[in-house]
Amino acid sequence: MRSKLFVPGTRPELFAKALGSAADGICLDLEDAVSEPRKDEARNTVRQLLQGSEAVASGKTLIVRVNAMDTPHFERDVAAAVQPGVHLINLPKPASPAHVRAAVEAIERAEHANGVHAPVGLLLNIETPAALRTASQLAMAHSRVAGLQLGLGDLFEPLGIARREPAAIQQAMFAMRIAAGEAGIYAYDGAFADIRDAEGFRAEAMLSRNLGFLGKTCIHPSQIAIANEVFRPTDEEIAHACKVVEAARDADAKGVGAYVVDGKMIDIPFVIRARAIVASARSLGLLPG
Fold first, then answer.
1. pLDDT tens for each residue of 262-284
2. Which residue in 149, 130, 112 sits closest to 27, CA to CA?
3. Mean pLDDT over residues 107-134, rounded?
4. CA dihedral 106, 112, 113, 115 (to 10 degrees)
5. Are 221 and 21 a contacting pair, CB within 8 Å?
6. Of 85, 88, 89, 92, nearest to 114 (Cα)?
7. What's the CA gap between 112 and 114, in Å, rounded?
């Protein structure tokens, strides 16, 4: 999921355009983009979309961002959002591993009530100092946690940290990527608010890509192409990965543990990464299946 397009739940006129876009995923929002008086409206609109055939037929990763667990909206959000075809519930501000497990229990109740048979996963928003400090514990709280998503605006603003401060951005990204790696799940980059600053978006996406993030949230369609380009494996990476995978087959047959490809020493961690790149390239149609 190189790109994930954010769509407010109160904007049904945007749903078809989003589903027809080049974004790999769509995140339907019931939280910050929806005012308090319109929460019920947004839930009903999102439920109707997810119960139709168009969303599933799009082939996109379908995500719903619900309101936090300490709000009166959480249970109703989950009941509306957990529908056949939904892949992930995006949970803001998880406060503890117990919160994560309670969210899973709510999802399980909604699955049972709505006849959803494929387990719906969790994408946790890391957007408070405590969540960043305990991110690995949150990630390992339940097997349904698929990824961690960094929310720099929510994290930095209360602390008085400038949203565009490079050192702070890199440190927060690195800390969360390590936590996600410890849990064996992916790290995902959050939104970049200035839709007019394409180069700023690209630079932040490049940083997160270089730190091993899976993709980046887009809040405007103009950002999708940039995210897809940045998080796509390059032709050089694909070619090298194919060589590594082939060399690994030969090495396994000969009982060799470490070897050289293109002048670089290769062992197991590099093979695992190469196989991931090849799998990604195949999923994007850049290599034959």
1. 888 888 888 888 898 998 889 88
2. 149
3. 97
4. 130
5. yes
6. 85
7. 6
